[in-house]
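To whoever is on call:

I kicked off a structure prediction for a single chain this morning and the downstream step that reads the tokens threw a length-mismatch warning. I double-checked the sequence; it's 527 residues and nothing unusual in it as far as I can see. Pasting both halves so you can look.
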Amino acid sequence: MIKNSNSDSKSYIIGGGIAGLSAAAFLLTDANIKGRNIYIFDRDEKNGGSFDGQKTDNEAYICRGYRMFEKKIYLSTYDLLAKIPSITNPKKNLKDEFFEFNKKVKIHAKARLMEKGKILDSNRMQLNWRDRVNLINLLYFPEKYFGTTQIKEYFTPDFFKSNFWVAWCTTFAFEPWHSLVEMRRYIARFVHDAPTHNTMSCVLSAPYSEHDFFILPLVKWLKENGVNFIQNCKITDIEFEEHKNNKTAKTITIQKKKKEKIQLNKNDLVFFTNGSITADSSVGSMVKAPKISTKKSDSWALWKKLAKRFSDMGDPSVFLSSVNKTKWTSFTITFKDPTFFKLVEKMSGNKAGTGGIITFKDSNWLMSITLPYQPYFIGQPKNTFVCWGYGLMPDKIGNFVKKKMSDCNGKEILEELCQHIGFKKEATEIIKKAVCIPVMMPYITSQFMPRKVSDRPKVIPKGFKNFAFIGQYVEIPHEIVFTVECSIRSAKIAVNKLLNISNNIPPLYQKKYSAKCLYDAIKTILK
């Protein structure tokens, strides 16, 4: 049994992803907790969780995801960035570095949608009148009106063939069977950006990979401030003491080489990242397709255990019910010469870093790619170029490679991409000098599954005195999941509420009641 000193309260953070790291940062800066009293537990050897990115043994790069930002919505994110020194220039904080970069490199997509190798006029929404009215109603009817409705149950079949839907779903990773309420929240949060839907000029990006930009400097700064990192361990249980209607976490069971229990004192705090969007990910190669593991990890085990004991801790089974509805394949391509990048830049009219996402509307896989600003990784060699992409429909047969995307190796995915983008003659040479690494993620969009409000726990469930949920599977009214902002905001709320800190949580930015925004949105969907 590990016993703590009564004189020094401690904070225990379960999960070293962006939510857990943010919680540690806010404990340091907002609550003035000493770093030596903050502990971060993670099951992996490295921190960052889904915020990963690294070089592989064959000198190629891999990152499971790619993130985009927006100036007015990501306010908790910028609050965090303002606290952290840049890893490349310690005289600057990350917020300053971020906005200086976006003044220099601005996104204005000229090839948002493509079909049959040609750029489409993505300014045309192609919506019928019924779906136009449905979109407006979605904004102003209350959430409870829509319940657990799926997106496909609300719109007409023509909606899913429209430019609006293809651009929307590939920007935010929505599927027709996902929650209409989650889509409603996104529309409400981004309604002010409607006029820029086809150029993505509202989008901001990090100066390099989000892992290198966010995680590396954040972890470095936390360690410099004395925060304790415990890697390669699992938290298998949290026991609570119940008194009347109050519940207090009393012990944490930790599994490393052996099981130990941490006895919590009266003023100790626990922050738990429940669930994982990248759990059970499988990595492929140029010659091997990634496969969904038949042996499930226990990434969700602790949440399942707690949810069985307490009804207000949500229901993780809702998000795990159907892998076929929550999975997709992403891929990272490392090019050893500039040919592919030069061809895409010429075809699209966008330099790398300025084009946002290119989606191939006629792709059976609904495949999209982005060419980030280069170098994308710190230390990336000269004449090496990194591209990221994904397919929303991995169980469909490819247009050119007659296999499901989920069954394709990196070479086959690259072949399909070259055909869609119109590089048929150059494909052989491009593939020779490239490494494409696909990743299958079975739960990547699980937080979008139709659900009741109670299926996601509140950041601090009613009656819990020293315990908080953080991350992608917590319920923050009106907030959108599957964003960096959601994870960081949940951490900020948790720290503020458990430590009674007031007035420093940025308000949710929503302009759906602005007459100008409504006018601009209606004008956009009428195109």
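Update from on-call: the warning came from a stale cache, not from the record. Cleared it. Sanity check on the structure: The first strand starts at residue 2 and ends at 3.
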